C-alpha cells in the first residue's frame, strides 16, 4: 500500500537521507538507498515496517497493513518532520549573515526526530557524559538484544513491554550497569507522563515534569522535548549549543540577540546550527588532513 507523505514545502528528502547517514544514533537502525528509507516500528503492540521513498517534492510511504495506515503515516511524518512549517524559521534567518552558509547548505531539511518517545527516553540516558559514537553503540546493542526482528530490521518494543524490564536487564544489554539502572527509572517515569502530555503541555510544565524523574537532568529533558518530540519553543543554548554557535558567529555571538531573533523557532535554529556546522567543517577537515599528509611526504622525501 502506497500513500503520499503529508509534507509542508520546502521539503528535501535527499537532505533527510544525508542527515540520517551522518548521524551516529541512526546508523544500523534503518535500511537506506539513494532514494528511500525503511524503518521498523511497533504499532499497536506489533512490529511493522514502512518505507519512505522518492526524491521528488512529494515522497510516498509504503506500508504492508492497511489497518495500521493512519498510525504509520503519522509516525513516518514525525520521523522526518514532514509537517513542520519552515517559513517562520527562514524568515527569522533573513539578514543573519553568519548563519547564511548553513541555511543555504541545508535548504529544505526538516527536523529529523528519533522515531519514538521510547527510543529518545532511553537514548537520553545513554548519551549523558558519553561520546556520541559510544552512546550510539549502546543503542545498537540494546536494539540487538530486545528489538523485535522484522524484515532484517529491529523494532523497539513499546512502553508496555519496556517497563517490565529492570535495571539489570538494560545494564546487561548495553554493557553498562549504572546506565541500565537509570534507563529503567527513566522509562518508567516517561511512560507515566505519556507522549500526549509532553507534546501538549506548556514547555516549562513538560520540562519540569521530566526533571522530576530520577535520571533526567536539563540536557536529557531538552533532548527528549526537542530531538524526540520536535518541540522548538525553547532550548538551553549555553548548555548544549554554545560551542557550535561561537564557531559560527565568532565574536558576534550574542545569546540574547539570537533568542530575540528566532523566538519560537530557536529549536530549528539549533538543529540547523548543529547539523550545518558539522557538515561544513568536513571539507575544511579534509583539506587540513590533505595538507598534513603532503607535509609528511615532503619531509620524508628530503
Descriptive account of the structure:
This protein is an alpha+beta fold and 302 residues long. The chain folds into two domains: 1-112 and 255-302, DNA-3-methyladenine glycosylase AlkA, N-terminal domain (TATA-Binding Protein, 2-Layer Sandwich), CATH 3.30.310; 114-231, Hypothetical protein, domain 2 (Endonuclease III, domain 1). It is built from 16 helices and seven strands. It has helices at residues 13-22, 69-80, 87-93, 100-105, 117-126, 132-146, 159-162, 167-174, 177-193, 195-200, 203-211, 218-228, 237-240, 242-249, 255-262, 266-300, and strands at 2-4, 31-32, 36-43, 46-53, 60-63, 148-150, 153-155. Strands 1-5-4-3-2 form a five-stranded antiparallel beta sheet, with helices on one face. A two-stranded antiparallel sheet has the order 6-7. β6 and β7 form a beta hairpin. The radius of gyration is 20 Å and the shape is globular. 36% of the residues are buried. Residues 283-293 have low confidence and may be disordered.
Amino acid at each position: 500500500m502506497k500513500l503520499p507523505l503529508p509534507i509542508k514545502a520546502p521539503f528535501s528528502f535527499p537532505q533527510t537521507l544525508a542527515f540520517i547517514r551522518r548521524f551516529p544514533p541512526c546508523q544500523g537502525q534503518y535500511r537506506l538507498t539513494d532514494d528511500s528509507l525503511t524503518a521498523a516500528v511497533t504499532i499497536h503492540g506489533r512490529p511493522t515496517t514502512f518505507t519512505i521513498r522518492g526524491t521528488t517534492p512529494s515522497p510516498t510511504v509504503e506500508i504492508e497493513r492497511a489497518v495500521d495506515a493512519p498510525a504509520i503515516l503519522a509516525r513516518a511524518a514525525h520521523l522526518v518532520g514532514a509537517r513542520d512549517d519552515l517559513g517562520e524559521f527562514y524568515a527569522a534567518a533573513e539578514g543573519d549573515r553568519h548563519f547564511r552558509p548553513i541555511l543555504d547548505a541545508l535548504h529544505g531539511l526538516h527536523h529529523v526526530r528519533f522515531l519514538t518517545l521510547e527510543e529518545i527516553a532511553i537514548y537520553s540516558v545513554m548519551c549523558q557524559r558519553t561520546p556520541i559514537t559510544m552512546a550510539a553503540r549502546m543503542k545498537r546493542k540494546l536494539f540487538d538484544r530486545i528489538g523485535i526482528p522484522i524484515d532484517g530490521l529491529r523494532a523497539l518494543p513499546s512502553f508496555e513491554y519496556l517497563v517490565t524490564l529492570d535495571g539489570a536487564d538494560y545494564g546487561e544489554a548495553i554493557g553498562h550497569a549504572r546506565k541500565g539502572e537509570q534507563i529503567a527509572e527513566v522509562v518508567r517515569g516517561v511512560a507515566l507522563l505519556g507522549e500526549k502530555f509532553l507534546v501538549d503541555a506548556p514547555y516549562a510544565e513538560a520540562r519540569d515534569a521530566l526533571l522530576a524523574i530520577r535520571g533526567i537532568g536539563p540536557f536529557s529533558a531538552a533532548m527528549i522535548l526537542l530531538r524526540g518530540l520536535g518541540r522548538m519553543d525553547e532550548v538551553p543554548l549555553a548548555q548544549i549549543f554554545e560551542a557550535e554557535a561561537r564557531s559560527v558567529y565568532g565574536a558576534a555571538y550574542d545569546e540574547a540577540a539570537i533568542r530575540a531573533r528566532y523566538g519560537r523557532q530557536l529549536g530549528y535554529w539549533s538543529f540547523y546550527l548543529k547539523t550545518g556546522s558539522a557538515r561544513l567543517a568536513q571539507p575544511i577537515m579534509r583539506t587540513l588532513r590533505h595538507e598534513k599528509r603532503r607535509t609528511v611526504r615532503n619531509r620524508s622525501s628530503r
